[in-house]
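Take the subject:
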Amino acid sequence: MEIEKSIAALEAILFASGEPLSLERLAEAMEIEKETIERLCAQLGDRLEEQCSGIKLIRMDEKFQLVTRDEHNELIRRTLDMRRNTPLSPAAMEVLAVVAYNQPVTKGFVEQVRGVDCSGVINSLVVKGLLEERGRLELPGRPLLYGTSPAFLRCFKIESLEELPQLPAQGEPGEDRHIEEFIETGE
């Protein structure tokens, strides 16, 4: 397949999917190597940028997705008669931060860090697609594990969790407990 046709095929696949697709899946679908897909994605992204297209190609970890440009959001909402999303509450932002920096985590871990019940906030973040279930712990009751989703990366306009700002140094030992300690002690 020549390069122009390959880029057009890649664009069609990403457009039709509507969801982030991994390099592996794209390479398998197009029957070409992962490194070649990565180069084609870079060329597609450059082409969309040069054309001042209304869409752009974004990368989230090892996945790619076509999305609309931010400057068109209001027009899209008006055209499609979409409600403006309500901003996240401070409690939701706190829960997202705890999960993003410590994932995968249980509801109990988040509640221990925050000191309050987080059931409603976690459920609302799962419904909004910012958090997702990541399995269960092998402990009595088999509590659910939660982690951030690809939508979390898109919302915060980052490619991967490595782009999150560094946490400030902790004051006392034990303040920066992670899920591993929680699993071991159950507290």
The chain is about 50% helix and 15% strand.
